[in-house]
Amino acid sequence: MCKIGLPQQALRKPLTWVCLNMYVPVLQSAATRREVAKGKCIHAHIIKMGYEPNIFVDNNLANMYSKCGFLKDARQVFDRMSKRSVVSWNGIIAGYIRYSQYDEAMELFYQMLQRGLQPSEFTFGSLLKGVAAAALKEGGKHLHALVVTFGFEFDLFVQGALIDMYAKCKSVEYARQVFDKMPERDIVSWNAMVAGNVQNESITEALRLFCEMKQAFTLPNQFTFAIILKACADSLFLELGKVVHANVITSQLDLDVPLWNALIDMYVNCGKIDDAFRVFNRMPERDLVSWNAILAGYVQNGYDKKALDLFRQMQMAELKFDEFTIATVFRICDNLVCIEQGMQVHALVIKTGFQANLYVGTTLIDMLVTCRRMDYAIKVFSEIPKRDLILWGVLIAAYAHQGDGDKALELFYQMQQLGLKPDEFIFCSVLKACANLAILEQGKQIHVHILHSGFESNAIVGISLIDMYAKVGNIKDACIAFREMPREDVTSWNAMISGLTQHGHGRQALELFREMQDAGIKPDHVTFVGILNACSHLGLVDEGCYYFDHMNQAHGIIPRVEHYACMVDLLSRAGLLEEAECFVKLMPFKPSPAVWRTLLAACRIHGNMELGERVSESLFAMDIKDSATYVLLSNLYAAEGRWNDAAKVRKMMSDREVSKEAGVSWIEIKSKVHVFCVGH
To answer: Whole-structure pTM over 0.85, yes or no?
Structure first.
């Protein structure tokens, strides 16, 4: 009766019919189903009946408690046993290993040896499994020595456990030594060796072993194919993945769900989402992993709307979601900037009890930040009980990037009060906040934190420091930060060149560019934006034209819209307005409003009314609601004394309900930033 899953019916038999060993199948059923209440009921019956101690029953009692997670009860049963066999010791050791209590397991193992018992292959199998899970390489070596001492060096089961242990301890070379010494190898041994290489990113070796295995006439099973497909997915080996897929079909194996999922994952990683979906459609049976894989595949390959449709299918099928499903859907809403759908999913999160889940909370806040719902993001943040550094970082970065530097700094100090240590990404965000607010003293305090935290040599942090000091006008400290950091990356040079240019040190920027070339650093498109700006501010028209041509001819960098904008600014500042207009018209792509505005501003400076009116018409055609165009045109008329025309532009602006952006100012008093707005 227990074998068909009805332990309670077995218990209904009169106890007089049941000898002691008849309890064993019921205990085994309770252990399999993790039904500790039923197991305790059996235990109570045994005690009540007053049976003599029975090692077979006691072993099963301890095993039942162990598998149900009641290790304390399992240990009590074990300690009270009058006789213990190797099976008894193996069972309790395996229980401790199962729940990651490796030290207790080893202590029992040594007690077992002290009592003169000979360990079996299953003893070492359990202990090696524990070592592998904890990645304790030295402990594994010690066990390996004991394996040899007790004569299990060539036991197939133990050798497989040794291979797995060394692989998980990132010592594939030791695993290979064990593998090479094996007198015979079964499919488990081959799989362990192949999987170990895949786990340690030795993909080529894993594929070579797969070929060796076939040459040794060992037929791969579902697990083998799943491992190789993972290797193909990780390395983006699409063609090889297709060959493995063909081998799966010709092998005539009954494909299990994990193997189907591995096929989907391989096609998704290789960017073949249609092939992945075809595999998905052919699956006779799917689990949540299958749905999650295809859902994430759509998102990964840019098919967010299809992913949303698939999620709706999942809802209609009344599938039970996990945190991965919910987080993926929040990423979809983030990509589509779809706040309404995101809020619906949030309602589902609350309904299903995932609101306190850190992974789900982080993706939800990411989505709310993208949709500019910071009020709701901070509410969700406050409702998550355990917040990690990533979650704090997401919110701090959001405030910094959206111009709320004071709130970013406030959160940063809250985080520190809780004893959390910032990482390099959080430091970059708060430095950006200081740069945007132009608050030097706060920036210096953050710099001190960076030095104490050991991030002074971090390239990303160094670039942010240069940017912060440059934007607050402290070029001297920006130069010091630049000279003290590793300068192997073009980004640090770009930050320094840009900072020098912005603060009128154009010649120093050009000198730094030459130094950069002498150091063998290859410039990129950002470098030339800084160089062209430097030429513009210095009025070096010929040099600017040279660098504009040089970037493509010498470095293969095709000019972008920002480079053309720099050239228009260069020509406009030099009073070459007609040439600047011609340059705009010859651009290989549609000029941006910023390019036209640059020219319009120059028309006011140089008093070119006719060109200014033409440019303003182009700007109005692009965006009739852009307040900057109205202001520049009005100022142009005012500069020429055409006050009536200036008033007409202002009236036109009012009639079209166009308003200027509010002016913002701030002041730092006693390390606190006070923000003031005008113009609402």
So the answer is: no
Residues 6+ away with beta carbon under 8 Å from 586: none
Q: Decide if 663 is inside a domain.
A: yes
Let me know if residue 581 belongs to a domain: yes
Residue 320 has a pLDDT of: 85
Percentage of the chain exceeding pLDDT 90: 37
Residue keyed to tokens 């929040």: 330
Q: How many CA atoms lie within 13 A of 479 on its CB side?
A: 11
Q: What is the dihedral of CA 177, 180, 185, 189, to 10 degrees?
A: 30
Range of the domain at 605: 560-678
**DSSP for 624-644?**
TT-HHHHHHHHHHHHHTT-HH
Residue 607 falls within a domain, yes or no?
Answer: yes
Q: What is the 3-state secondary structure (H, E, C) of 313-379?
A: HHHHCCCCCCHHHHHHHHHHHHHHCCHHHHHHHHHHHHHHCCCCCHHHHHHHHHHHHHCCCHHHHHH
Radius of gyration (C-alpha) of the chain in whole angstroms: 35
Distance CA 427, CA 489 (A): 19
Tally of domains in the chain: 1
Q: Is the pLDDT of residue 259 over 90?
A: yes
Cβ-proximal residues to 428 (8 Å cutoff; 6+ apart), any chain: 460, 461, 464
CATH number of 624's domain: 1.25.40
639 found inside a domain: yes
Q: How far apart are CA 39 and CA 372, in angstroms?
A: 54
Q: Name the packing angle between helices 288-300 and 257-269 (round to 10°).
A: 0
